[in-house]
Specification:
- The chain contains 17 helices and 14 strands.
- The chain has 440 residues and is α+β, with helices and mostly antiparallel strands.
- Strands 1, 2, 3 and 6 form a four-stranded antiparallel sheet that branches. A four-stranded mixed sheet has the order 11-13-12-14, sandwiched between helices.
- 44% of the residues are buried.
């Protein structure tokens, strides 16, 4: 399936009465679209609706340039429920200032539109204004969708370049925007890698202090490249060295735990991994959870485990422990001699949480069999969405939940808790499965 296109349509206009040169030169009527849905549908003061907004695009272009690395690399906000991705929550979630268009400010009318990268795809959510307050127009559209991150990058860069061209035509080639964008454009490969790494932690790479920069560089040099991205997506920014030390210990412990796993992964690889590769090509990259569900169903089918029966993941995934605090890392897994071991970050986890962590690790292995070590992250990257969906469907299949609820004869909270006990999972897992696969 094709990616949903994100598009900003611009028509330049004259701006009589606007005295600031940059604002006057870049006055426009603009529309924002995600596929066939208009993000900028507005209701005016007289109650009529239109699909475009009037104002200067200079503040938006400057905001994009200033937050470039965060907009394309900061996966951490994906761990926050999208219900909170709205400008009214900016005080509780300061990252919205760098990911929501209203952070551009400058008195212009911007949609309550939030952009968050999740690896190869980016998640876009917009909310309508339910109260008019003192704003001249009320944005009247809600929606969400996914777009390929590379396509989003190109469209955001296009906004900046269009504005810079307009400024140059107006005799304004030297602006704060031009300087900001030049800093981004001139970065060499090593500088770009550092900027992306800092942004993964929600840090502006151009305002980072020297001590933190040195810590980031040292840790990035020491960690294996295949785990670096997930580490910086998860680690506590205030305790990076402790988090890195936990990962180094977890590497050794997870390898020992793998050696104790009773069964090898070879049978799973031969029956699932080949088809998973085909599924990856066939299933929409914008919906990674579909791949996770499909892999779990196939594994249950191949192993002849009924949808109403519990699935024991322990033969393939051994569990170890590290006593030190993990400093933001959810877990770490290793594959050694076709056996997997996992170390989970939170001490004192119950049996249900441990089983879910084991299943997540198995999901990552099946989806990416070539990766031998990886961090389990709280962020909702593409790989993690696949793994979480896999774990939920493997341990508590939607069809099994449906059949069990039919037997119980009701679907209230007590019934869902009974189902959770039957499958030995958290009630939240059953609720998630019910809401997303059964009720939907």
């Amino acid at each position: 399936m094709m990616s949903t296109p994100f598009e900003v349509r611009i028509e330049w206009l004259e701006a009589p009465g606007v005295t600031t040169p940059e604002l006057a030169a870049t006055w426009a009527r603009y529309e924002i679209w995600l596929g066939g849905r208009c993000v900028t549908q507005v209701e005016t003061a007289d109650g009529t609706f239109r699909r475009s907004v009037y104002g200067s695009l200079y503040p938006l272009a400057y905001w994009i340039a200033s937050n470039w690395w965060l907009l394309v690399s900061n996966v951490r906000p994906s761990a926050v429920d999208t219900n909170y991705w709205t400008w009214r929550n900016a005080r509780n979630y300061p990252w919205l200032a760098q990911h929501n268009f209203r952070g551009a400010g400058d008195g212009m009318a911007w949609p309550d539109l939030t952009l968050v990268p999740e690896g190869a795809i980016s998640h876009i959510v917009w909310k309508q204004d339910y109260q008019r307050n003192s704003i001249p127009v009320r944005f009247a559209s809600d929606g969400s969708g996914f777009v390929r991150t590379e396509e989003l990058r190109a469209e955001l860069a296009g906004i900046i370049n269009h504005v810079l061209e307009r400024l140059s035509e107006a005799g304004l080639p030297k602006t704060a925007l031009a300087e900001e964008w030049y800093e981004v454009a001139k970065a060499d490969d090593q500088e770009q890698e550092f900027c992306r790494t800092a942004a993964r932690m929600g840090i502006d790479p151009y305002s980072i202090d020297d001590a933190t920069a040195r810590v980031i560089v040292n840790i990035a040099d020491q960690l294996p490249p295949e785990i670096s991205d997930d580490f910086f997506d998860s680690a506590d920014v205030t305790a990076l060295e402790d988090a890195a030390e936990w990962v180094r210990r977890a590497m050794l412990v997870s390898e020992r735990a793998a050696a104790k796993a009773p069964s090898t992964l070879q049978d799973i690889y031969s029956t699932i991994s080949a088809s998973a590769s085909g599924l990856t090509r066939a299933i929409d990259v914008e919906r990674p959870w579909v791949l996770g569900y499909a892999m779990a169903r196939q594994l249950r089918h191949e192993l002849a485990v009924k949808n109403t029966d519990q699935f024991d993941v322990s033969p393939w995934v051994g569990v170890g422990g590290v006593t030190a605090p993990s400093r933001g890392i959810y877990g770490f897994a290793s594959v050694t001699k076709d056996r997997c071991g996992v170390v989970l970050g939170s001490r004192g986890l119950g049996a249900t949480a441990t089983r879910f962590g084991q299943a997540r690790a198995l999901g990552r292995i099946i989806a990416q069999p070539e990766q031998r070590r990886f961090v389990l992250s709280a962020a909702r990257s593409h790989d993690e969405r696949v793994a979480r969906a896999f774990a939920a469907e493997l341990l508590a299949p939607a069809e099994g939940i449906r059949l069990t609820l039919e037997t119980i004869g009701k679907t209230d909270d007590s019934a869902l808790e009974a189902v959770a006990q039957r499958f030995r999972v958290s009630p939240l897992v059953v609720r998630h499965q019910y809401d997303n696969q059964i009720a939907a």
